[in-house]
Amino acid sequence: MIAAYPIAKTVGVSDLRTRQREILSQLAEGPIVLSQHNQPMAVLVDVELWNRLLEELADLREAWIATERLAEARREPASVQNLEEVEAELATQSRAG
Question: What architecture is the 9-45 domain classified under in CATH?
């Protein structure tokens, strides 16, 4: 699970232009919100955090799909196929194709 971060620091786009190295070095501490005219425009995150977020999102999507399929199988038990039935069907399709 991704660690919770405190409220993200906000930096103006003009500050990023003039203090780029300093601001980018702060990404290890957590995400930074870029603002323009006091409106949030983007979020800068460390690459490592970004990759972890993408992995966690993929895991959550897979868990959601599994939960939905389990619920469907419970609602309609006749729609569930065992492994042997699936393998036989795939083999038949493979020979026909």
Answer: 3-Layer(aba) Sandwich (3.40)
